């Protein structure tokens, strides 16, 4: 018989504490209730009236503290007709996407620049390995919806066009690293909120 310590089954995040690479500190077990383990936020469609005509409704640790320390999280993805989730990465997680409505064209680019892409329909699933550039596009005439799970409670996100053009990196540097001309860089910076 082992003595001394009991297994820690969960660590509901105490969001009032500081987040570290290991997550948030644990909420006191005496304060945990069943409602800590239930998240209802994925039922409602996200607002797709934006430049990309897409919305992500996250169930990450900041919205759903029960995933703290469990190595999982989820999100709802809504993409209106004509919408796109531009090339992006999740530096801290792999992604598993399941289409629940509509049609989504999706793909990813490997670190050796091999491309894997396809069209997904209701019930289809696709995995996007951690850290790789990937995208999703509405490929039909109705709003597409997917439920996405991640291998981290805090997957991170970097959207490539916003990283390049939505900041104050001088245009001359952006031109040098993208091979785009000055007029195009300035146009994209204006569209995506950058300066410089």
- Which residues form runs of ≥5 with pLDDT under 50? none
Largest sheet: 5 strands, antiparallel
CATH domain topology of the domain at 47-56 and 76-151: Jelly Rolls
Instruction: Tell me the Rg in angstroms.
Output: 20 Å
Strand order of the largest sheet: 1-2-9-4-7
Count of individual helical segments: 3
What's the CATH architecture of the domain at 47-56 and 76-151? Answer: Sandwich
Shape: globular
Structural class: alpha+beta
Number of strands: 10
Distance, first to last CA: 67 Å
Q: How would you summarize what this structure contains?
A:
Among the domains are: 47-56 and 76-151, Jelly Rolls (Sandwich); 163-192, no CATH class. 13% of the residues lie in helices and 30% in strands. The protein has helices spanning 160-165, 171-178, 182-192, and strands at residues 54-59, 73-79, 84-89, 95-101, 103-109, 115-121, 125-128, 133-138, 144-150, 158-159.
